[in-house]
Amino acid sequence: MMSIDHQAAAPTVDDLVQHRNQMIMGSVNDVLSSHVTDHSAAMGELSDEVTSLTATIANTLDRGKRIRAQFSMWGSFGASGGELVEGVPEIAAAIELFHFAALIHDDLMDSSDTRRGLPTVHRHFADEHIREQRLGDADNHGSAAAILVGDMCLSWSDDLAAMATDSLDSAARRTVRAMWSQMRDEAYAGQYLDMLSQTEATTSRRRTDLILRLKSAKYTISHPLCLGAAIAGGDDELLHLYDQIGLTAGAAFQLRDDLLGVFGDPRVTGKPAIDDIREGKRTLLMAVAESRAGQSQKEILRHALGNPAVGEDDLEAVRSVLTATGADSAVEDRIRELTGKAMEILEYLPVDDVTRSALTGLIERCVWRQS
């Protein structure tokens, strides 16, 4: 009887990508869970009445996609040749906490009711105020609680960012901290410019592009990639190429977000499609439509953008203008163009094949996503 010597097949690139992705999600979630649990316990010892603040963080933080954390971890793998470097899970988790804080404050500024399929933090505490029949204004209480929760996440993210650099020499530590500080400043500046654009009837293409760069491109992909690489000892060439990938793919990511903000299915996105219209978001999508619209179409946009009273009929009217002017197609074309540029850089990026494959797949998921 013939015996056959079965040998295990060597893992493929896809196998290794999947294995590292599991490691990424596990390590980042472990850091986040431990960090939030430690702070929750410390605050709970002060008073059990404040545990509702920390419970809201734990319950909502779990629902994130960890996009920025994944870019940070894969950025480090590109610099280290696939080795998990001390401090990288902490910086990836720090970015996630910073992002969560930004979402909490952003939802409050935009008066959004839902996020990730759940009530937003300010809405959650306002509803709790009503259920408990407390004194005072429920909305004011909800807003104040959300500001506190956002501030808590901001300070906790700084704690993690500091922990991430513990094992670095003083020069590398200064480099990483400077990147972290720059990321925060750019995100704050982009948010204010976004708010400012909503107070004006029109906004310049220059400001629209700057908001796109600061609030999304740098913050979503570029800085996470570079922070992970810097901790793992990446050189200046790699950091420069990561930055270029971030600027192109990150802009495409935000443009997809703008399209989903108007045309997305709320059951998939977890957020009403009408919010961006009510808030008067001056995105590239709207800028293109305004530049191409006829008088009657401009009136539809002028009536709807920034009007908190608009309803579903107004949303459909705006959608009709966006499609009739070809604004939606123009943004799709721009997404394809930007994604193509990012993919070109990826082809000659000096990283291992597993990292290249993972970054390719991650960018594709970001720009062609449905939520």
Automatic annotation (TrEMBL):
<dbReference type="InterPro" id="IPR000092">
    <property type="entry name" value="Polyprenyl_synt"/>
</dbReference>
<dbReference type="GO" id="GO:0004659">
    <property type="term" value="F:prenyltransferase activity"/>
</dbReference>
<dbReference type="GO" id="GO:0008299">
    <property type="term" value="P:isoprenoid biosynthetic process"/>
</dbReference>
<keyword id="KW-0808">Transferase</keyword>
<dbReference type="GO" id="GO:0046872">
    <property type="term" value="F:metal ion binding"/>
</dbReference>
<protein>
    <submittedName>
        <fullName>Geranylgeranyl diphosphate synthase type I</fullName>
    </submittedName>
</protein>
<dbReference type="InterPro" id="IPR008949">
    <property type="entry name" value="Isoprenoid_synthase_dom_sf"/>
</dbReference>
<keyword id="KW-0479">Metal-binding</keyword>
<comment type="pathway">
    <text>Isoprenoid biosynthesis.</text>
</comment>
<dbReference type="Pfam" id="PF00348">
    <property type="entry name" value="polyprenyl_synt"/>
</dbReference>
<dbReference type="InterPro" id="IPR033749">
    <property type="entry name" value="Polyprenyl_synt_CS"/>
</dbReference>
<comment type="similarity">
    <text>Belongs to the FPP/GGPP synthase family.</text>
</comment>
<keyword id="KW-0460">Magnesium</keyword>
